[in-house]
Amino acid sequence: MNTTVLITGANSGIGKELALYYGKKGARLLLTVRDKSKRDALEASLKQLVPSASVRIDLLDLASFGSVLSFCKLLAKRGEKIDIVVLNAGIHIPFSSRKTKDGFEQHYQVNYLSNVVLVNQFVQKKIISDACKIAYISSSAHRLAFGIISRLNAFIYHYAHSKFCATNYFLRFKEQNPHLDIKIIHPGHVKTNIHRFKASPIYRLILRYRSYLDPMQVAQNIAGIIDSKEEVLFWEIDREGNPDKHCYDYALSEKLWNSTLDDVGGYLHTSQKMNLFEIT
Fold it and tell me: Contacts for 234-237 with beta carbons within 8 Å, 24 or more apart?
């Protein structure tokens, strides 16, 4: 498999299982984790599980635009040309709206804004190949971003809003970049570390009795979707799905994009700032 695959958030869960899947297929792996301890642990694990795989692990903290820009600069300096990008890294911390050091609500920056900057830097610096496949790991929770009840639901709102913003963004990004193979994937309810902050007694009770998908099977589903020739943009688990109806509200898309430009426009190429969400 003469393919270079980038996977963000690769130290556990879906990200790690995808790394194992592609590593066994012979792909060259570019993986990201947030800190050195996670990098060391992942490196040791992969050496044991896929000793013949070509692996490079870099630090990337999506809660820091400085980290995102440094990572992209490093890839460009190395002359990387990536064939598959899996934007898997994300957070869900219920009842929390803590701000990052850049001044943004943490879910909004990690799950949305930093991915916008990342992808635009990839295009600008020609880090991805012309036929690159990009998969964004979304969530069915993006449908819970609207309505008074959702806004009052501190358990899910910030996460849902960030996932809606990202889902909406990649739908529009595909329209402006038809040569790129983009897939937005709700992987299902998966037993991963994203649930580690959900410590309330009620949620623990739900977690005990709810059926969760195995990360290894989910990773195989995602890889199959990425390789699929079907012209399907939004996927739910392993079949075609429909994003929330608000994703097709172009006036809302324009409003969201203008807000995004206020937030991260300084990191985007001029042509992309002007044309990416041109409403016709």
Answer: 234/138, 234/167, 234/171, 234/184, 234/185, 234/186, 235/183, 235/184, 235/185, 235/186, 236/140, 236/186, 236/188, 237/186, 237/187, 237/188, 237/213
Give the CA distances from residue 249 to residues 16, 143, 148, 233, in Å, rounded to whole numbers and listed in that order: 35, 14, 19, 17
User: At which residue do the structure tokens 């013949």 appear?
Assistant: 52
- pLDDT one-digit tens code per residue, 201-235: 555 555 565 567 889 999 999 999 999 999 899 99
Catalogue the E-assigned strands of 98-138: 128-137
Whole-number Å distance between alpha carbons of 42 and 39 = 5
Task: Tell me the C-alpha distance between 33 and 37, whole Å.
Answer: 9
Please give the model's pTM, rounded to 2 decimal places. Answer: 0.91
**Residue-wise pLDDT tens digits, 95-131:** 888 999 999 999 999 999 999 999 999 999 999 998 8
Q: Residue 277 is encoded by which pair of tokens?
A: 């969400």
Burial of 37 (0-12, 13-18, 19+ CB in 10 A): exposed
- Tokens standing for 116? 């916008």
